[in-house]
Amino acid sequence: MMTKSHALEDKYKEEATQAKEETQETSLEKLPTPTGWRILVMPFKVKEETKGGIIIAQETLDRARVSTQVGYVLKMGDLCYEDKEKYPTGPWCAEKIG
């Protein structure tokens, strides 16, 4: 049986998770909607500190950010991957959900 304090903590955690999800949805809605064949991509965030606690130099972080070749697809325009001759197997990516 759960005590009253545990039930209250669970409720707070549930409400915090729900609020975070709602905030994330509204943040995504604020982003511009790509038109045509365009894709809105957010690059992966580079870690600024190693697991061992070593802080990575700013120059190294800048190089890593510039050289990033991958990211999260946030939104896609309505004409993305519509050309069946260029993309016979279909889309190469999909929008990030959640």
Short descriptors:
37% helix; two-stranded antiparallel sheet; alpha+beta; 2 domains; 2 helices; 2 strands; single chain; 98 residues
Summarize the structure.
This protein has 98 residues and is an alpha+beta fold.
Describe the protein's architecture and organization.
This protein has two helices and two strands. With 98 residues, the chain is of the alpha+beta class. The chain folds into two domains: 1-30; 32-98, no CATH class. It has a two-stranded antiparallel sheet. The relative contact order is 0.15. The mean pLDDT is 82.
Structural class: alpha+beta
CA-based gyration radius: 20 Å
Specify the helix fraction band: 25-40%
**Multimeric state of these chains?**
single chain
- The proportion of residues in beta strands is 5-15%
| Total number of helices | 2
SSE run: HEHE
Low-confidence stretches: none
Beta strand count: 2
Give the integer mean of the pLDDT values.
82
Major sheet strand order: 1-2
Number of domains: 2
Largest sheet: 2 strands, antiparallel
Shape: flat
- End-to-end Cα distance, whole Å, is 33 Å
Describe the secondary structure blueprint for this structure:
Layout: H1 4-30, E1 39-43, H2 58-66, E2 71-76
Antiparallel strand pairs: 1-2
